[in-house]
Fold this sequence. Notes:
Chain A is of the alpha+beta class.
Amino acid sequence: MNPFDVIKSQLSKTVPYAAHTGIELLSVADGRGEALLPSQETTLNHIGSQHAGALFTLGEAASGAAMAGGFLSVLMTARPVAANANIQYLKVAKGPIRAFSSVSQPTSSLLKVLEEAGKVQFTVDVSMRDLEDMEVATMQVDWHVSKTAT
Amino acid sequence: MTSNLANSMPFSKMMGVTVTSATPDKITGTLKVREDLCTTGGILHGGAIMAFADALGAIGAFLTLPDGSNGTTTIESKTNFLGPAPIDSVIEAVTKPVKTGSRLSIWQTDIRQASGKQIALVTQTQLVL
């Protein structure tokens, strides 16, 4: 199991709400992530499409995967916090939805800032797509990562 | 009657959202921070925080729908995470309209611990269908 798969496994096990909502992390890579919200009755809204909150949770999970993948080398000595999040709902989201996330800047430069300044801020962009590959929502999550005392 | 408003949405019902009052000018609700709503470290997951606010804002939008409309849906939402909500606590939310119109309504939800410490501020836009 490579280090990214270890992070994926750990995130899946240690976030009870992700299990509660049925969200599955599909991949974790350097500054990128992918997650799935399955088609299920429990995450629907009053009009029978995926609930806005469930889509937000999907996007946040994918953004966390991209963040964790990008900061893998320092994750044990860093404190990541999602400070703000914006989401735009573009189309009615029906069926299983996949979220694709990417850190908006090269992670190598962010790691350098973290090393030198002790903290760094950046955005993770998320695109959520249905089975027809139509974009149903976009999201931006602002992460603050700081070094912890060692 | 108010609790039934949250139960009309399966996702809100699953989370345990309780609507304690609902008028066109103000909606209040509570949420018990159960273990299955948490992220690492035993604090409420950001997705659960936003979903709690979204449920209350949607109820406000529903209560202010213009005549002849077919419902409402969220089209945009912004969440500022301001502090943690610890496991086993009961958190409180107050939702008020920023503006209601014939095509859109905008709602702001202030979520706090029982002590008054702020957890999040959520601003959402609802489309009239």
